[in-house]
Amino acid sequence: MYGLWELARIKKYDYVVLVEGETDYANMDLHGFSVLAVPGTQNFQPEWASLLAGIRNIYAWGEPDAGGAAFVQRLAAHSPNLKVITPPEGIKDASDMAVKMGDRFSDMMHELIDTVEQDTAKQSEVGIMVSRGANFTERRQSVADAHEYGGDADTATEILRCAVWRRAYQYGCGLVEG
């Protein structure tokens, strides 16, 4: 798999997006996502499943074609808790989305991941409830509100200005965590 050299970091973030092909890997990695890529829809090896042990959230990009369905089916056979990311209509894969979405790629990717999260509401460490289905922008606003109303308006401002919002509520423009 492409990206195995990042396995320690991926395990630290406790999530990974599995994609098909090196260009999808490159686009996801460029935008800061924990990603591994299989070189072809039918090439996932059963022994690779053990490499993913201990990663709580395993996502697969489900391309909207027969190859994508075969890819997801093969991954699901080795990862029973696999969560499937369904791309927006008219988008084939992560590379296609990067071209079509441009600067909005990261926001859209976060929203796609959020749509496959569990049905239970989650409590952030700052005490704001964010229910299933809340999109990336709503979550960022909730975290900013929590900081502002908790007495740290400067942090709230920084959160809202930050263009790169990474998984686990870590911000690429500063080390601000919710």
Question: How does this structure look, described?
Answer:
It is a single chain. The protein folds into 2 domains: about 5-115, Dna Topoisomerase Vi A Subunit, Chain: A, domain 2 (3-Layer(aba) Sandwich); about 120-170, no CATH class. A hairpin with a 3-residue loop joins strand 7 (about 165) and strand 8 (about 170). The strands form 3 sheets. It has a 4-stranded parallel sheet with strand order 2-1-3-4, with helices on both faces. It has a two-stranded antiparallel ribbon with strand order 5-6. A two-stranded antiparallel sheet has the order 7-8. The protein contains 7 helices and 8 strands. The two termini are about 30 Å apart. Residues about 120-135 and about 165-178 have low confidence and may be disordered. By secondary structure, it is α/β, with parallel strands linked by helices. The radius of gyration is 17 Å and the shape is globular.
List the helices and strands and how they pair.
Layout lengths: L6 H7 L1 E6 L1 H9 L4 E4 L18 E5 L4 H13 L4 E3 L8 H8 L3 H11 L6 E2 L5 E2 L5 H14 L3 H9 L3 E2 L3 E2 L7
Parallel strand pairs: 1-2, 1-3, 3-4
Antiparallel strand pairs: 5-6, 7-8
